[in-house]
Write a structure and sequence with these properties.
Blueprint lengths: L1 H21 L6 H19 L8 H21 L5 H26 L5 H28 L12 H22 L3 H19 L7 H23 L2 H24 L4 H6 L22 H9 L3 E6 L1 H6 L2 H13 L3 E6 L9 H9 L6 E3 H4 L8 E5 L8 H4 L18 E6 L19 E5 L2 H15 L1
Parallel strand pairs: 1-2, 1-4, 2-3, 4-5, 5-6
Helix pairs in contact: 1-2, 1-9, 4-5, 4-8, 5-6, 5-7, 5-8, 6-7, 8-9, 11-17, 13-14, 13-17
Protein name: NAD(P) transhydrogenase subunit beta
Organism: Deinococcus metalli
InterPro entries: DHS-like_NAD/FAD-binding_dom (IPR029035), NADH_DH_b (IPR012136), PNTB-like (IPR034300)
């Protein structure tokens, strides 16, 4: 029986890897999710064949309750709330890994230097992922409306991390007393909170990806401690892919991961930058509609403002009207647009925007000088030209979408504020830029109404 179980785990591993590969493209992502889901179901079923397995009734009850809640939430969650849901799932995975290790410590089932070390690492990483994900969820949900930064934040981070590591080493050396273990878990959870609290919305996609990688690693470590190959494989695959994605996103922001964690961009503390001169010019929805209706090429740059307003369906309706009038409409997505990796891709796919109309930064930047109108909807830092030339700016060096190089730029924005990151956007003051103020949903709806009136 054990041989059959192990062979099944090999099949499960293949399904996980194939599923992950398919998820790398929007065209095959749905198929990848199905493969990975089948693998997880298979791993769960075959685990019940493990000889001597106990508490089967309780496990079935937990699966029914947890699976039922996940099925319901997956059905009702809005696409705009997906970042919060991802944060919740990250936290649950990390918390589960840490809880499993705590239970094994309490039962005295962890023996040997390597299992003890991996159990401690899984506990530390899982606890940080859990509490950090809770903070990320509260920020994304709007419950925490501002970044909280302690005096001497980095010193506090380093001191707290050092104490947690020392307690972990003490646990590995002695097996851990109840008092040491309780203090270890409490401080590890606190570390996740103090690391994540100062991080603002501009860095949140990278943080979500990093927490996802943490969760995978924690699960993989605990899989080794428990001797369950499926957990090891699933955890390492998630951890490795999450780490790679985090590195790619940090590179897209031209910021090392350490800089994102220890020197986050917050809305309150943006010194730096040489200032922006000029005035913003406003235009009406009628003018915006006419500008795009009689253009040949329009590139839409969506951002978090479109997600918050839930305007993706109106944007797609506008694109169809323009295409019906012979305008070439495409979409440009920055790697860190939105509040989680792939946030804009998910929203546009939900609205029915064809995959071949959506382009990454490297694919479309060279086309902006040939574009008649760039329509920026709720995006900010990812189109800010100061990233190219202002060495004093916190975003200097970050690759941006070259929307400012289009002949005309229309920016849909709620007001004249500097935005979530607190950095003034030079694009808004350029001679070729006009501002269409208002909620993205209402502003694009007004544009659609005017386009229909033009025939």
């Amino acid at each position: 029986m054990q041989t059959f179980i192990d062979l099944t785990y090999v099949v499960v591993a293949a399904l996980f890897i194939l599923g992950l590969k398919a998820m790398s493209s929007p065209a095959t992502a749905r198929r990848g999710i199905v493969w990975a889901g089948v693998g997880m179901v298979l791993a769960t079923i075959v685990t019940f064949l493990t000889p001597g397995l106990g508490n089967i009734g309780l496990m079935l009850l937990a699966i029914v309750l947890g699976g039922g809640a996940a099925w319901y939430l997956g059905r009702v969650v809005k696409m705009t709330d997906m970042p919060q849901m991802v944060a919740v799932y990250n936290g649950m995975g990390g918390g589960a890994a840490a809880a499993i290790a705590a239970l094994e410590f309490a039962r005295g089932e962890v023996h040997g230097a390597l299992p003890l070390t991996l159990a401690v690492l899984g506990s530390l990483i899982g606890s940080v992922a859990f509490s950090g994900s809770v903070v990320a969820f509260l920020k994304l949900q709007g419950v925490m409306k501002r970044a909280w930064r302690l005096p001497a934040q980095n010193t506090v981070n380093a001191a707290l991390a050092a104490v947690v590591v020392l307690l972990g080493l003490l646990t590995v050396a002695t097996g851990g007393t109840p008092a040491v273990l309780v203090l270890f878990y409490v401080l590890a959870l606190l570390l996740g909170v103090v690391l994540t609290s100062p991080i603002g919305g501009a860095d949140m996609p990278v943080v979500i990806s990093l927490l996802n990688a943490f969760t995978g690693l924690a699960v993989g470590f605990e899989g080794y401690v428990l001797g369950i190959p499926a957990l090891i494989i699933a955890g390492i695959v998630v951890g490795a892919s999450g780490t790679l994605l985090t590195q790619l996103m940090a590179r897209a922001m031209n910021r090392p991961i350490s800089n994102i964690i220890f020197t986050p961009m917050t809305g309150e503390a943006q010194g730096g930058g040489s200032g922006v001169a000029g005035t913003m010019r406003e235009l009406s929805a009628l003018d915006a509609a006419a500008m795009m209706r009689y253009a040949q090429r329009v590139v839409v740059v969506p951002g978090y403002g479109m997600a918050v307003a839930g305007a993706q369906h109106k944007v797609q309706e506008m694109a169809k009207l323009l295409e019906g009038a012979g305008v070439d409409v495409r979409f440009a997505i920055h790697p860190v647009a939105g509040r989680m990796p792939g946030h804009m891709n998910v929203l546009l796919a939900e609205a029915g925007v064809p995959y071949d109309k959506i382009f990454d930064l490297e694919e479309i930047n060279a086309d902006f000088p040939l574009t008649d109108v760039a329509l920026v909807i709720g995006a900010n830092d990812v189109v800010n030209p100061v990233a190219r030339h202002d060495k004093a700016s916190p975003i200097y060096g970050m690759p941006i979408l070259d929307a400012d190089r289009a002949a005309q730029v229309i920016v849909v924005k709620r007001g004249k504020g500097a935005g979530y990151s607190g950095i003034e956007n030079e694009l808004f003051y350029r001679e070729n830029t006009s501002m269409l103020y208002g909620s993205a949903q209402q502003a694009i709806a007004d544009v659609v109404t005017n386009l229909k009136g033009m025939g």
